[in-house]
Every structure is written in C-alpha cells, then in structure tokens.
Amino acid sequence: MRQTTTAPRNNKLKPSSNLIMNGSVRVRVIRTLLAIQNGQSLSSVLDPLLNSLHDGDKGFAHALLLTTLRQWYALSRLLDTLADNPIDEVEVRTTIQVGLVQLLYLEVADHAAIHETVEAAKEIEFAHATGLINAILRKVAKNPNKFRKKCNKNHSLPNWLAYQLKQDWSEQYNELTQGLRQSAPMFLRVNTAVTSVDDYQQELYGAEIDTDLVELTSGFNLPHSSDTATLSTQALRLHQSTAVSALPQFAEGAVSVQDMHAQLAAPIIHKALINKIGKDKNVTDLHILDACAAPGGKLAHWLELINSAEHSPLFHVKQDNAEVTAPTSKIKLTAIDNEAPRIERIYDNLDRLNLKQENLEQAEKNVELEIVCADATRWQGAGKKDTSEAVFDAILLDSPCTATGVIRRHPDISILRAEEDVEQTAVLQADILHNLWPQLKVGGYLLYVTCSILKQENALQMQDFISHHDDAVAVEFTEDCNWGIAQTIGRQCLPIDGISGDGFYYALLHKAAE
C-alpha cells in the first residue's frame, strides 16, 4: 500500500524542514514535531530521533512523541481555552503541548514536566515565552483530572476529517474517533510454509510473550453459482508490543508483523484464484499481479500461501487421500510499485522470509517472481506501451489512499493530510483501476484494498467504477464473515477499540464476459 504524501497547509510554519538532533530529550521531541508539521512523515524522523538518544531515554522520547501526536488536536483546542490571547508561534504551541502531555498522559512529576519544558523553550531560542509556558502548565498541574477529562471529551482530529467521519459513520462515530486516539495492538502473521500457528504460539509462550489467537473467517458467493467460497486466516495478537528482535525465529522468516485485517488480503485473492482455475480445467500457466506492492507484506503472504501445500492446491491437490499434480504447471507473479526505495524494502522483506526468486527455485516451486518499478496508472503488463492486453488471472490492488485507517499507528497522518487530498487520491485510485482492469482476463478477479476509512476512497469508488465497466461484477461477501461491516460493495473494517485491527476496506470484483 502506497500512502499519498502531502505537506500540511499551514503558512505559519517555517519553510525549513532540517531536523537538528541535539539538546535535551524534550528539545529533540519538539524539533521532531516541528519537522512533522513542516511535512516530514513520522516514519522518516522517528529513527533519527531515537538513534540520537541514549538507550535509557528512548522509551520516554517515543512515548512523548507518539502520545503528543495522538492527542494533537485535542491538546491544541485545550490550549486555546487556557491562553488569554491567541498563541500564533508554532514553536511555542508545540512546546506547551509537549508539556501538557507530560502532565495529563505520561504521569511525569509536575516540577520535572514544568521545569524541563520551560528549559526546552530556552534551548530552542524562545525564552521570551517561558513566562507564558510556565503559567499555563502550572494552571493545568493544579487540576490535571479536570483538564484531562476536558481533553478527552471530544475527538482529536482535524475538523474536516471528523466531519467526514460523522457523515460516513454516524452510528460508529464516537467509538471510532476515540479509537483513533489509542495505540494499536501488535499482530503477527505466521509463515505456515515454515511452521504452524499453534507451534509458533507455543514458542512465544516459551519466550514469555503472551498472545491471543484470532481467527478471521470469510466467505463470498461464487459468480454464476449457488456455491460459496469459504476461508479462514489466523493471526496472533500480542498482549504487549515487543521488539521484533525478541520474536523467536523472526530473522529466519518464521513470522512477520502484520495487522490482523491486512492479513485478509492474500487469502481472499488466493481463494478467488483457486476458484478461477477450478472453473477452467485447461489452465496450465497463471499470471498474477500485486499492484502497489511495497513494502511487500501482502506479496510475501501470497507467496507463503503458494508455497504451502496445506493452503494452496495450485501445485498439489488431494484426490482419494493421495497427492496428485494440479493442472497448474507454472505461476508468474509480478509485483509493481512506483518508488525505487520502496522496491528495496520489498526485496529486504522477501530476503528475510526466504521468498526471493532463488529461494523459490531451490524449493522446486515453479514460480517466477518479477518485481518492477512502474507507475500503476500507465504500466502495461504485456510489455506494450499503448495497448492494454488481458494477461492476468488475478490482481491484488493495494491501492494508494489517505491511510486514515492506520492513524493509530501513524498519528502524523492527522497533521499531514488535508481535505483536498481525499479527492486527489480518489482520482489517482480511479486512474489505476481503469488502467489495470483491461489487463485482467475474463473470469479473473481483482481484489481492491485500502487502509482508508473514508467511503469516497472505498465503497463510493467501487460504485463509480462498476457504473463505468459493464463487465465488472461485485462479488458479495457472505453475512457470516466475522470481520468488517457490509457496504453496498465490499466490507469495511474500523479501528474502534484496543484489540481490533486497523481500518481496511475490501472489495472483490469478478470480470464477466461482455
């Protein structure tokens, strides 16, 4: 999934985005927050921050930064009620918000939070505001419960986003907006080509890492049939997030960190592909596509399913308790993304999971893996520049989106996104869909996935697409799916509590004969 990236629209910010990592812990966090407000993403500034600190300071800095981002807009509104006059200097506002987080959410001792925050203002050369900062923080320290309740009462989102969520999800609005302020649980995907979920959970238990087994069941109605395709996928939810270095066999590729709802993508498109070859007994070669594939989590999951005889009858099927060769003799899996650095991340992930081309060949899997740096709005899989040709049996489109469904993990999204980004992203999504659809064979499937919770990017996008393509048929998910909320087309997952997965949308399209 490729997120759209846009700088915030705020003409009060300094144009410079250089990140200077010196000074106290609080100063470094303040400078990191200023860099984010200048358009840099959390993912690009978090490592420089943590790497600049001693090990003993990293936990506090991480908590201070992430909590400030998650409560950003609520803190800003609280600050406006605490100041007698508007505070326009973004550096001063940011410093005060960092101080408020320490008093309201991190349980830092009053004297330490106030003194160190005032000193931080001096370090960033805003000594003229120390009196104001001291006064506001002392006022809050006298009655933190009162101000915490006030801060928590409403959402912590930009007004345009809160308004849109109210329009899209009126029944779930309160739970949703409060859920987006929380940290997200950590989920694991076990590589079932290497070990079983049960066995790996036992390994975690032996390493004193407690987990819950989460099973997601799915079903969809097969086109032109009364039959239903059913599948399930199992994820492990950690009771407490932990460093990947502490996970048994992580470096050897036995497990990956992947959100629970993200783990639905590969099994759904894989099941649809199996259904397609079941309908066409003459299929010998398959060509499948993972579009917008970086950083490669869903691609790796699909390859794991292809590699696992337990989950994939593409090479092996059971007949009368005996294993025989399936009709498929060769699979070509093409993955594309338009950013070279993100392509490198795909290679890194596949390398750790032993899923690069040489690994597939050593495992005697007749799978050809091709990774291409290309723009999905124009790329042609048949190698032609101008003429689309139907070459793919299945397409997984992990579409670019505003990533509003993963705000819990990337709270900078609330700052970096603007209202106009939604329309621009929807246009980009439509361009990709219109380019890829002609390249899907009749009888094939396209799974459309986003990590957005905005209907314009999801169900409304699908409705518009189908209205312009007579051969596009929405496949209905069955009512017994234990994930997501049924939409006019597809299903929507919402991040509404501390144990749920992220906000993902899924729609499965079948290409019918015109």
UniProtKB/TrEMBL annotation:
**Domain named SAM-dependent MTase RsmB/NOP-type: residues:** 176-512
Indicate whether Glycosyltransferase appears among the record's keywords: no
Task: List keywords of the entry alphabetically.
Answer: Coiled coil, Methyltransferase, RNA-binding, S-adenosyl-L-methionine, Transferase
Alphabetized InterPro entries for the sequence: MeTrfase_RsmB-F_NOP2_cat, MeTrfase_RsmB-F_NOP2_dom, NusB-like_sf, NusB_RsmB_TIM44, RCMT, RsmB-like_ferredoxin, SAM-dependent_MTases_sf
Q: Does the keyword DNA repair apply?
A: no
One of the Pfam families matching this protein, by short name: RsmF-B_ferredox
Q: Which residues form the active site?
A: C451 (nucleophile)
Q: Which residues form a coiled coil?
A: 343-370
Residue positions binding S-adenosyl-L-methionine = C292, A293, A294, P295, G296, G297, K298, D337, D375, D398
Similarity comment text for this entry: Belongs to the class I-like SAM-binding methyltransferase superfamily. RsmB/NOP family.
Q: Give the protein name, as stated in the record.
A: Transcription antitermination factor NusB
Q: Which organism is it from?
A: Psychrobacter namhaensis
